[in-house]
# Entry
Amino acid sequence: MKRCLKLTDIFFLIMLVSAAAVQGTTLLKKRITSPNHTVEIVFLLKKGHPFYQISFKDKILILPSQLGFRFKNGNPMEKDFELISTKTCSFDETWDPVWGENKHIRNHYNELSIILKEKSRQRRRMKLIFRAFDSGVGFRYILPAQPNLKEIQIVDELTEFNFAQNDTAWWIPADYDSYEKLYRKTLLSGIKAVNTPMTLKTPDGIYLSIHEANLTDYPGMTLVRVKNTQTHFECNLVPWPDGVKVKGRTPLKTPWRTIQIAARPGDLIESHLILNLNEPCALKDVSWIHPMKYIGIWWGMHIRKWTWYEGHKHGATTENAKRYIDFASSHHIPALLVEGWNRGWKTWGAEEPKFSFTEPYPDYDLKEVVSYGKKNNVFIIGHHETAGNVPDYERQMNAAFALCQKLGIPAVKTGYAGVIIPRGQHHHGQWMVRHYRKVIQTAAKYHIMIDAHEPIKPTGIRRTYPNFLTREGVRGMEYNAWSEGNPPEHTTILPFTRMLAGPLDYTPGIFNILFDKTGKHRVHTTLAKQLALYVILYTPLQMAADLVENYENQPAFQFIETVPTNWDETHVLDSRIGDYVTIVRRNGNNWFLGNITDEHPRLLNIPLSFLASDQIYIAHIYSDNLKTDWVTRPVQIDINKYRVTYKDTIPAVLAGGGGMAVYFEAATIDKAKLFPPLERFQKFRYTPK
# Structure
């Protein structure tokens, strides 16, 4: 329900209009609060310059911060404004996503719209919309169609984030082409430029995350610290080759600039603010969109057992694909990703790499593999690696998706691992944002779901186009195959940073953790933590990434078989960014728990009060054991079953780099009695540091 009121209606929200002489000028303030009154937005017009300010529970988090634009041709829109009108709205609805972390999502906010007009010169108009949610703030610009502003070439968006304190930040450096970095933890004053999301903790213990929502026909936003300041940041958009940031026409809407705010870090994860700032689903028929798990001819290439290109070590052969299909079918895994199936891989690294997205290599019978998969109830996931040659992919895209539709391939993993062609364009610039949107819209016409690698960051577009199932945009599992790897704390940071943007194709599930006999490369976790990541790192398209032979006769694989990829309810029970996190998710009557730690062992007592009070459960517990050590004995694991209720508490004793995964199976009393009570759960016999 949406109610819009004029400013003169004094019964709506706390609104203040004050005019005061300030050195001969007028200071104008407009205030709006969130529905529970904890979040406050103040709009200020000072000496004709527009600013905003953000508070949480009466504590200022963002000091007055500038708004506006500079153009390649024409005067900037940053000053000499007068207020033309204001309007407030209250909106409250509950909507159901096609898939996601929760079955129902509430979208509840109070809105303030401001229309400004230049007092002199071109007298151009600019509209600002502020939305105050209980979990934070979203604001955007609208440049209406008008005689003096038609063609637009923006060289700077002047949005600032003037933080009130020198907050602690978790961040990755600004990069116009990649998000595949390890997160750093510093004070704001130690940052020069960052990609978003950037997550902060104030000295008072308030958590914030700065990002954007509904990134449509606009470049990605990075943040740069203003020179000679410690905590003052400004927007820096990814440029076109000629230096212009945004090219378009009025009317023009920017993405929403988002500031999630929470009293505890887990509340950032539970927020739906970014999704709610996107338009409802644009697809009339979504019956063909379905989350699923998959295995892949993939990890073998990264550990150099196989090659993507044709030859004696070629991974994508008909024989190998059938072997993987047999495994998937016998273990109830519904899909198989096959990389390296198509002609062109030997052009990788060329000045202009060219792949065919319809022609398989001779040793891979595409039709036979798809047919064999259908007979065994296993879908094939296609793979379209472009190596950055975007024009060549766009030329073939319709034919490629049509082939997938004809054969019954429901999903495609795309890739852009390379310098973007044409040269000078960036992965995160406006030109590529347009391309990513073109891909997802074209895929929808053919009923194809997309998993994008080397993508633009998520900004909630999955609400509008739910066939955009997931994407990479992170330093994922493959870095463990050929680099120094991802440290144990990496996955304890991701839920509070990159994953606030949206689902993550991290590709967990490596069981042969010490795969490299030379000891140079490895996965920096325990086996139990690999299982827990299926709950911690959400994606509707979830991979069991290891070679299938490493899953054979391994009881721990039962958890991967059982864990869903779509959820009815999600809660963060306990967390400390970079140290540990415990998340529970419900699917139907059953619950799943993931609990992980950094390099330090921990004892965490987990109350099971989230369970239904009138239900008894069998807890299938996969945990580190007495001998587990992520460095020397990472695959040691205990698997036990106990009967539990909502009154119980699980003692989760985690080895360094370790974790715990639990499946709570709703059961009858008679069935549950076949298992011992939880108090018999063996506790570890060491004291975690």
Remarks:
- DSSP finds twelve helices and 38 strands in the chain.
- Confidence is low (pLDDT under 50) at residues 5-25, 684-689.
- The CA atoms of residues 168 and 187 lie 4 Å apart.
- The radius of gyration is 26 Å.
